[in-house]
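Lab channel / #folding
Pinned by the channel admin:
"Please post every new chain as: sequence first, then the structure tokens as a reply. Keep commentary short and put observations after the output so the thread stays searchable."

First post following the new format, from NK:
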Amino acid sequence: MRRRFGSLLRRYLPFTRSVMLGAVQYRFRFVFWLLFEFLYIVIAYFLWKGVYEARAAAEGTAFETVMIGGFGFTMMILYVFLEKIVGSLTALAAENFIDDDIHGGNIALRLIKPIDYRAQLFAQSLGYAAVSAIIFSSAFAIGMIVTSGFVDLPFVADVPSILLGIVSILMGGVIYFLTSFLFGMLIFFTLNSFGMWQLKGAVERLLAGSLIPISLFPAWLRGISDFMPFAQTRYVPVTFFLGQYNGDLPAALWTLAVQGIWVLVMFLATTLAWKGAVRRVVVQGG
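Reply from TO:
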């Protein structure tokens, strides 16, 4: 077991390292991206502040007592920061690498190499996500701490919730990768990725809870979200750090079990999709 693990590291770690080195070379892209994300947080802060103030005025109640979808204003701001932090930790995107391999004509070479293509993509995605996580997560965490000096953010998650939340982030990252890999397989059949990525991005941001918490969705949209994997990548891990499972270990374990089921389902789906994609490449002669 130990020898096999060492063999896997020697085989796939170079892919992770090469992507990390390549990503660092374009570090200024991360800087501009980070500025954009912080601008989004500032906009979200004042947007939600306006919403809660309008609700308080309409109901004739105090601003601090207004609840929307189970969220008070300070918890909503905490959610915005946590969603950004978790999102940067779980974003193991594979579709860009698949797109490059197909349109760069390298996919045939990938197939004849004695390595698992899905594992190679996971290693590459892990490298890019590691750089992104170091830059973005640390920046968002600092921003959240600084903001807590002005806004009384409710850090109420207990130690078991935080530990289980870390497990949830790990499984969320795997689900994100497998979902990305599955969408990447569609390029083999459409050979056109731009529109598909735009559609995936829009659906993902909505159903993962990136725009608003899923608890604010109408019942029919929550029902759709339950049958899609996107919420498992961001919204579900965030709920642990909001303290929603404090003192409720059975519910927390069940939530992790659902994530485990999604990992299994997406693994089987990607296995079938990859076999179909390889068959298509062979039929077309690479």
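NK: The chain is about 75% helix and 0% strand.
TO: also worth noting, The mean pLDDT is 88.
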